[in-house]
Amino acid sequence: MSAYSKETSMQKPGFGKQMNENPASVQNHGADAGSIRPMERQTFSNEKLHLALKHFFGYDEFRLTQLPIIESLLKGEDTLAIMPTGAGKSICYQLPAVLLPGIAIVVSPLIALMKDQVDALTANGIHAAFLNSSQSQDEQQRVVREAQNGTIKLLYIAPERIPANSETFFAFLKKLNPSMFAIDEAHCISSWGHDFRPEYLKLAVLKKHFPDIPVIALTASADKVTQKDIVDRLELKEPRIFISSFNRPNIHYYIHPKRNVFAHILDYIKKHKEDSGIIYALSRASTEDIAGRLHEAGIKAAYYHAGMDTNERSRVQEAFQRDEYRVIVATIAFGMGIDKSNVRFVIHHDVSKNVEGYYQETGRAGRDGLRSDAILYYSYGDIVKLKKFAEIEGNPQQTAISMKKLQLMQDYCEHEGCRRQFLMQYFGEQFPAYCGSCDYCLSSLEEKDATVDAQKLLSAISRTGERYGAGYIIDFLRGSASEKIQPLHKELKTYGIGKELKKEQWQWMVQQLLYHHFLDKTDDQYATLRLNEKSWKLLKGETQLKLILKKEKEQTDEDADDLGYDMGLLRELKSLRQDMADREHVPSYNIVSDNTLIELAMYLPHSYDELKQVSGFGDYKVSRYGTNFLKVITTYAREHHLVSKIQMKKTKREKKEKSEPKGKPAVNSTMKVTLDMFNDGMNVGEIAVRRSLAPTTIETHLSAYVASGELDIYRLISKEKLEKIIATIKMTGQMAALKPIKDLLDDEYTYGEIRMAMAYFKK
Ligand code: ADP
Ligand code: ZN
Asked: Cβ of 535: how many Cβ atoms within 10 Å?
């Protein structure tokens, strides 16, 4: 019998129990496992993989392309995974590593991150270790012994550990019975990339020594040349390539004009007193200055820049990871080695010198998938300053590139449109013109014909004899039952004709009419509203009134969730987590993530079984930390007369599953308008013009109906084309980004058609 089936057979009920009895049972029985060749690999059903994800990592759903990547590896195929930072690359190899017999060898360049990964795995009861230059000889010997005994599931190795004579090294690896090779930060093998590491070149012969062992290369680099380089240099065999969208939906983007910056930042930090974040500034001096002023204002802040010595820098970084500092003010030197998943905000005090850098820096926020903010303060003065830096003496070519990139950064800051769309297009992805979570979309302006409303207001003023102030007129319009309204007025036809608008909306309308001189106001103590010549023109319909309105923000599910947890309990849970972290000498998010704490404070689980339903609680964490968390929750609940709400989580999920089958996006009213127009016989272009929306937006609307089955795909695309596109989707395993598919098809295939086919395929 194989090691795998003995230890981790995933019969449904037994699966969790087994772990509780022996949390460390995921081990590698070298001798047994040796007999399993890749060809004999078992297949894992979708359901089994979901169970395993919950069991080992505590998560309920796979993100993005995690599932197909994992399936590809389990089938023994070479795989290239391209995912943005924070999307969850690690699970892609960690889950197969625990499921497959043998040991997974992970090559990773950053020593600090390696330790973090091993700590995180250990916290989930998975036996992992690393080999790098920070260890003593003895320690390294111990790890090697454990690896040879087959008790380790994942072994992280720094590339510089690979000796010049790689033959001995590969012979050593062979004895360990590797299940796969995971090459993290794989762009380091490419001299085109921004982070070339010559040590990585030694990996080029991996495939020669281990032709049957799958290799997974992982990177966040979106660059095509680099991707090709990775495949070529690692000699991946017919690799499956998965490219995820670079969109980070949980990050909200804001750009503010650079005025009173410090006061603005301080206000933000004070309003978000539970959160930690990074402030980027251009010069070392300003990092020190800002950090100093924050400190004076009572915020736990520190600065970080390349002028500090190494010890001091790592001290600051570690203190930030442990939440001892809430805010770090840094030059861009900060962040390379940082893997703090609960960074809630990234603020750019100064403009970045290019969009790539800016995006990478903002990407350090929200790696746990929770709502986070990226805020940039823009002034043209910063661009002028940066232009001086962009000038590289004696290198006109490089100067031109830097200038061009700076120009694009300026374009971004001054962009009149969705920030996210700009960013996505910058990285070669199509994206609709409305994201709903950037400053532009949240407050985008809309021209509205206000003639009818204005006429109602003006005629109310006229009918009541031009003797009242705004308050009375508005109450009259809204049909107030108040005794203040004269009985005679209650008989008038205009009484109550403005019920559909709120009081504030009418107040705003009065201001607008005054501002545009469609109305006069006396300037005595009891200011009364009076009509003028322009008012009469409007009333008679000889002229129209168009107003620019701020679109009202729609209440989203996410907002509703935000309100749903108990702040007091969250604070207690955070402090409990901090105590545990201090005791174990690990960063607090290693115990459980912020997301998990929020779920605890929201659903108040009262038993082990209930705890297991919370995202982030795998079986090991339940058995290790469950008692402590439950104690705090039940005590708090008793004191505050609260009961468990875990049932809500279930019903919420079940509801979601019932109402929207997987892959079907929610349909809203603006989409319905598009569908109606389409059914009326208009094509995408015509609808886009009529609705003043981008054609891609219209296509996105229609594809939602294709996905839900309400719209026949063949009304949008021929059968032949559909089949060709689907074959390409299958070939690339690509389910998120359109560009890679478009690149593989002829020019006659449009993005719109690919989008439709993808929606259809998902369905
Ligand atoms: P990357 O290497 O791509 O930058 P990580 O692998 O470090 O990202 O993952 C980022 C965070 O997301 C980690 O805290 C990880 O535990 C979490 N994560 C990964 N996959 C999932 C998932 N399916 N559900 C919830 N959280 C996840
Ligand atoms: Zn937007």
From this structure: 24
90 Cβ inside 6 Å of ligand 1: yes
**Burial (0-12, 13-18, 19+ Cβ within 10 Å), 39:** exposed
> CA-CA-CA-CA torsion for 466, 467, 470, 475, nearest 10 degrees?
-100
pLDDT in tens, 240-289: 999 888 888 889 999 998 888 999 999 999 999 889 999 999 999 999 99
Instruction: Report how many domains make up the chain.
Output: 5
Atom of ligand 1 nearest to the CA of 84: 3
Helix 380-390 vs helix 396-414: angle between axes, to the nearest 10 degrees?
170
* Residues having C-beta closer than 5 Å to ion ligand 2: 418, 420, 435, 438, 441
441 vs 545: CA distance, rounded Å: 24
- Ligand 1 pocket test: pick from 63, 70, 90, 620 the residue with the most ligand atoms within 8 Å of its Cβ: 90
- Give residue 439 CA to ligand 2 midpoint distance, Å: 7
Is the Cβ–Cβ distance between 736 and 244 less than 8 Å? yes
How far apart CA 142 and CA 140 sit, in angstroms, is 5
Closest CA to 621 of 9, 16, 29: 16
Let me know whether 160 and 73 are in one domain: yes
User: What is the structure's pLDDT at 1?
Assistant: 31
Phi, psi at 323, each rounded to 5° = 65, 20
Tell me if residue 352 falls in helix, strand or coil.
Answer: coil
pTM over 0.70: no
Taking residue 94's Cβ as centre, other Cβ atoms within 10 Å add up to 25
Average pLDDT over residues 48-67: 92
Q: Are residues 464 and 422 in the same domain?
A: no
Q: Is residue 39 domain-shared with residue 160, that is, in the same domain?
A: yes
Closest to 177 measured CA to CA, from 97, 235, 238, 93: 97
> Is residue 662 a part of any domain in this protein?
no
Edge-to-edge order in the sheet of strand 276-280: 251-257, 372-378, 343-348, 276-280, 327-330, 301-304
Domain of 619 in residue numbering reads as: 562-648
pLDDT class for 663, splitting at 50, 70, 90? Answer: very low
Q: Give the up-direction half-sphere exposure of residue 621: CA atoms within 13 A in the CB hemisphere.
A: 28
| CB within 8 Å of 281: residues ≥ 6 apart | 287, 290, 329, 330, 331, 349, 350
**Per-residue pLDDT reduced to its tens digit, 94-108:** 999 999 999 999 999
Tokens of 607: 């038993």
Regarding whether 353 and 308 lie in a shared domain, the answer is yes
Name the band, by pLDDT with cuts 50, 70 and 90, for residue 30.
Answer: very low
Ligand nearest the Cα atom of residue 553: 2
Q: pLDDT tens-digit profile of 205-239?
A: 899 999 999 999 999 876 677 888 899 999 999 99
Token pair in block for residue 715: 């009304």
pLDDT per residue over 419-457, tens digit each? 998 998 887 777 777 787 898 877 755 667 889 999 999
Element (H, E) at 155: strand 154-157
88 lines ligand 1 (CB under 6 A): yes
The CATH number of residue 69's host domain is 3.40.50.300
Q: Is residue 87 within 6 Å of ligand 1 at its C-beta?
A: yes
Q: How long, in residues, is the chain?
A: 763
Does 743 reside within a domain?
yes
Q: Rounded to the nearest 5°, which phi and psi values hold at 453?
A: -60, -45
Ligand 1 atom 5: the closest Cα is on which residue? 88
Q: CA of 422: how far to CAs of 414, 417, 505, 634, in Å? A: 11, 8, 33, 47
At position 60, the amino acid (one-letter code) is D
* DSSP secondary structure string for all residues of 687-749: HHHHHT--HHHHHHHHHHHHHHTSS-GGGTS-HHHHHHHHHHHHHHT--S-SHHHHHHS-TTS
Instruction: State pLDDT tens for residues 685-715.
Output: 777 766 667 777 788 888 888 888 888 888 8
